[in-house]
Amino acid sequence: MKAKHLLLASLLVVSSLATQAQVALSKEQIVALTPEWKGDRLPDGRPNVPDKFLTRLRNISLEEAWGILRNAGYNNQFEGDWMLLRSEQVLTGRAVTVQYWPRRPDYDKIVKDKGKAEGRIGGFNSWPIDVLKPGDVYVADSYGKIVDGTLIGDNLGNSIYSKSKNGVIFYGSVRDTEGLEKIEGFNAWIKGYDPSYIQEMMLGGINVPIRIGRVTVLPGDAVLAKKGGIVFIPAHMVEEVVVNAEFIALRDAFGHQRLREGKYTPGQIDQQWTDDIKKDFLKWLDQNPDKLPMTRAELDEFMKKRTW
Predict the structure, then answer these.
(1) Selection from 118, 170, 120 nearest residue 143 by Cα
(2) Residue 190 · residue 174 · CB < 8 Å
(3) Bridge partners, residue 96, by sequence
(4) pLDDT recorded at residue 295
(5) How far apart are CA 296 and CA 130, in angstroms?
(6) Which pairs with CB-CB distance under 8 Å and at least 24 residues apart come from 10-15?
(7) Running DSSP on this structure, what letter comes out for residue 210?
(8) Residue 30: enclosing H or E segment and its boundaries?
(9) Torsion of CA 67, 69, 71, 75, to 10 degrees
């Protein structure tokens, strides 16, 4: 039934886009695209993933996030092979998705006229920046175009950071990397750099479903970007990914300590735990509250559903 509802929502969005030019999806359309999300939403309709989970997500490894999503049936959530401005810096946030296409004059005119009627100012590649809020990540599919495909330079980069306090993910390119590197706190995951200006491109839509490599990204997805690549997490899966990964880290910390102490053998730790080991783990949690990245209430609720 849920699959049917999602298919219907997608068809409605595609039908709407086909019958009238839209710069951005409406709140109602975004809600229809993300029915699994049951929490608060941003004014534009995107899922409002709580800041506390985005902060904790920074400490989750790409492999852990990827594995938890894959076990839940989300098999296409990772994209690697990026060029980074700052390889040591982690990026998390809520996706503002943007689609760019090769320019077709008749459709380009329709979109620009629509944008002008809506009061949008400047070039079309600046329109997504105007909608950014703190915690957002500007995620764009510019179909891998490098030469004449540079979506931003240092001027737009400064504007992006001032609005979002975050960075960008472009399946395409940027210019002025030296200037972008001077923006403290800003980072970019891109497919290339070129000194050219953007040419022969047009805006396909803001907060629409997009493709980033082998991932389909929806508006409001959570981003976990590190030097090894990017995992895009459906909003309704973020809490599960974070708490699961944190629990796995606690299990590992407990297991490593007990192995160093010689209390258990590797075979005992690596297989299904006995009731005695489980009891020892729970006692260890009580003795080491400083090791908990979540509240004890969150952990207790999670462990009610955990099969170990």
Answers:
(1) 170
(2) yes
(3) 138
(4) 86
(5) 40
(6) 10/209, 13/208, 13/209
(7) E
(8) helix 27-33
(9) -90
What was the pLDDT predicted at 296?
A: 84
119 is annotated as contributing to ligand binding = no
- The residue written with tokens 């396909």 in the block is 204
The answer to whether the annotation marks 205 as part of a ligand binding site is no
Of 189, 195, 211, nearest in space to 100 by CA: 211
Return the pLDDT at 20.
Answer: 62
For strand 222-226 and strand 136-141, is the pairing parallel, antiparallel, or unpaired?
A: unpaired
Please tell me whether 176 is known to bind a ligand: yes
Q: Alpha carbon of 152 to those of 260, 271, 293, 297: distances in Å?
A: 51, 51, 37, 44
- Locus of tokens 């796995």: 248
Residue 108's contacts (CB-CB under 8 Å, 6 or more residues apart) are 202
What are the chain's domains? 2-234 (3.50.30.40), 239-305 (no CATH)
Return d(Cα 70, Cα 76) in angstroms, integer: 8
In this structure, what are the phi and psi dihedrals at residue 36, rounded to the nearest 5 degrees? -70, -20
Residues of the chain predicted below pLDDT 50? 1-3, 5-19
In the block, tokens 């290339």 appear at 192
- E strands within 50-171? 78-79, 83-84, 91-102, 136-141, 168-171
Residue 206 identity: I
Q: How many residues does the chain have?
A: 308
